[in-house]
Recover the amino acids of this structure.
């Protein structure tokens, strides 16, 4: 039995029902977070909660809970499952209204939903051999920094990858790399880590920050700047990063090999640093 949380109550997932007048259902009017949990400890929880607050501010929805209340709630949902490693999903919408009207309800009562799933990590084969990606024009709106539940464009873009047997879609806007359909993208060229600067055109990934911190700690040169599509097609390594995938090497883009067509040395180093860092965080060092 899967236990979820909805508006103040824990219940079996089958019993969790949201009215059709919920603005999340009608308009995609809400935001979400995905928090990885290792050995029942949420990873980078404070950062996830801060990003959630920034998202709520961006959509002008008051936060229904403070950081302590969120921490308790997330702790409870983690305890309610049998999995040691999980991904906790949190969704907040602008709640139920009596009419379908674009304008905000006068006194919104947010719908708060949490569920947790077994953390599905990349396979050993994906880590050893790398994954394939395709590219597409980034046709999303201009507020990709908001972790909005309105994910139609991301869904369609990601499906392009699935349809061609790939794992991710790498997005370019006006010839410049933005991110993946569900990840941030990093590149390595001549030993330098390249990534787009945070802006409204990409999600400020929690993993993106971890990667940059680890690069700084270990003296990996890095440049945050516009990376052109031409550059991306000539890099030595390409990585995708996200909370559930951590860092994964992309070894083929649009059917052409990236660098040597296999996971590169910088990826191997970064993956190792990530694991050591994660273990240290989990031991509260
Ligand atoms: N960009 C997009 C569009 C995403 O959906 C995600 C998360 N799946 C990311 C980047 C990575 O963010 P994080 O590292 O916080 O998971």
């Amino acid at each position: 039995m899967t236990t979820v949380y909805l508006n103040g109550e824990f219940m079996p997932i089958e019993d969790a029902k949201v009215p059709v007048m919920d603005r999340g259902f009608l308009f995609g009017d809400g935001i979400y977070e995905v928090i990885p949990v290792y050995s029942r400890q949420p990873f980078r929880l404070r950062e996830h909660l801060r990003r959630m607050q920034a998202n709520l501010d961006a959509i002008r929805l008051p936060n229904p809970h403070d950081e302590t209340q969120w921490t308790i709630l997330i702790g409870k949902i983690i305890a309610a499952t049998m999995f040691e490693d999980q991904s906790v999903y949190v969704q907040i919408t602008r709640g139920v209204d009596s009419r379908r009207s674009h304008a905000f309800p006068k006194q919104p009562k947010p719908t708060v939903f949490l569920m947790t799933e077994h953390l599905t990590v990349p396979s050993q084969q994906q880590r050893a051999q790398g994954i394939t990606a395709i590219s597409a024009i980034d046709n999303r709106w201009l507020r990709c920094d908001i972790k909005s539940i309105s994910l139609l464009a991301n869904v369609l873009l990601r499906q392009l990858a699935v349809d061609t047997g790939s794992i991710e879609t790498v997005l370019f806007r006006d010839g410049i790399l933005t991110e993946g359909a569900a990840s941030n993208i990093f590149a390595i060229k001549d030993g330098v880590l390249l990534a787009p600067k945070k802006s409204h055109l990409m999600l400020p990934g929690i993993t993106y920050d971890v990667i940059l911190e680890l690069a700084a700690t270990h003296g990996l040169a890095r440049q945050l700047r516009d990376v052109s599509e031409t550059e991306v097609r000539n890099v030595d390594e390409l990585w995708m990063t996200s909370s559930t995938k951590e860092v994964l090497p992309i070894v083929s883009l649009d059917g052409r090999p990236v660098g040597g067509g296999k996971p590169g040395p910088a990826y191997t180093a970064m993956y190792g640093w990530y694991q050591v860092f994660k273990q240290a965080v989990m031991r509260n060092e």
